[in-house]
Design a protein that fits this description.
- The protein has about 120 residues and is mostly helical.
- Helix content is about 60%, strand content about 5%.
- A hairpin with a 2-residue loop joins strand 1 and strand 2.
- Helix 2 runs parallel beside helix 6.
- The longest helix has 17 residues.
- The chain is globular and about 35 Å long.
- Pfam families: DUF2200.
- InterPro entries: SP1917_dom_sf, UCP033199.
- This is DUF2200 domain-containing protein.
C-alpha cells in the first residue's frame, strides 16, 4: 500500500505534542508506563527525556522532530503493518519514521518485552 502525497504532508505537519498524549494513554491503558514510552522514543530518536519534553512544549511538527533525530541504526528492523501500511513498503522517509514510532508504541501497549521492542535480543 503506497502513501499519497496528501497523506505524507498531513503527517509532516502534525505536531508531536498532539500525538504524544495518545501514546501515553494507549500504553498506560495496557499497564505500561510513561517511562517505558520515553525509553522507546529515546531508543528510536536519540533524544533524552528533556529533549522530548522540549519538542512537546514547542509544539514541533513531526517533520522537525524527525529531522533533528538521530535514528537508531537498528530502526530498519522494525517491520510489520501499522495503520494499514506495511512499514517496509513506505517510500517517504518521514512517514516511515513516524510509522516506526507508531509500531513501537503499539508493541509496547501489546505487552511485548522491552528487549524485543528495542531490537536488542
Amino acid at each position: 500500500m503506497k502513501t499519497t502525497p496528501k497523506h505524507d504532508e498531513r503527517i509532516a505537519k502534525m505536531t508531536f505534542a498532539s500525538v504524544y498524549p495518545h501514546y501515553v494513554t494507549k500504553v498506560e491503558k495496557k499497564g505500561r508506563t510513561q517511562d517505558e514510552l520515553q525509553t522507546v522514543i529515546t531508543w528510536l530518536t536519540g533524544f533524552d527525556n528533556n529533549q522530548i519534553q522540549e519538542y512537546i512544549d514547542s509544539k514541533a511538527t513531526f517533520e522537525t522532530f524527525f529531522s533533528d533525530a538521530t535514528l537508531n541504526e537498528n530502526a530498519h528492523l522494525i517491520k510489520g503493518v501499522i495503520c494499514g501500511y506495511r512499514i517496509e513498503e513506505i517510500e517517504t522517509p518521514l512517514t516511515k519514521h513516524v510509522r516506526y514510532l507508531d509500531k513501537l508504541v503499539d508493541e509496547l501497549a501489546k505487552g511485548r518485552k522491552m528487549e524485543k521492542i528495542l531490537r536488542s535480543a
